[in-house]
Amino acid sequence: MPHIAIISSSIRTGRISHRIALYLKQFIESKNLSTAEILDLQAYNFPIFEERLKFLPTPSPTLLDYSSKVKSADGIIIVTPEYNGGYPASLKNAIDVLYDEWYHKPVAISTVSNGIFGGTQVITSLQFSLFKIRATTVTAMFPNPKAQDAYNEAGEAIDKEAVDKRATTFINELMECIRKNNK
What we know:
This protein is α/β, with parallel strands linked by helices. The chain contains 7 helices and 5 strands.
């Protein structure tokens, strides 16, 4: 069975995007599609990196753990809020500190906002960063407008049927990329 790592990228107090990370983990596991774990950047509490992992003389155990989890995952879901049209520095930091771990890794993007566009303005810049490090981005997206009203704190969708329908398309696309990558 494949394994999916879900990067919850917001480190803000009161973050809403983490609800979507929780939802996706529960959705994947309830459908028995894959094993899943959340890589919570708030819990990792990384400092701003001065160098890529492979060039650090004494990397921290948390950085080595994060690297190992990204490398061993069959696919990655990045759940990111949109901050002023971009993604948070915590995510940029977590992407840039690694390089080889991302090579041809299937990565799906879920965007989040409290407005009506669901964080879709962040997709292009995030895809470009992932392209530059040679990750394989999945074409299906999972935008979440007005996320504060769509999910509760436990990650349960308020309109479960509609959200599950969108999630099915999103996760199926990621699973297809994982299958093709593992051939």
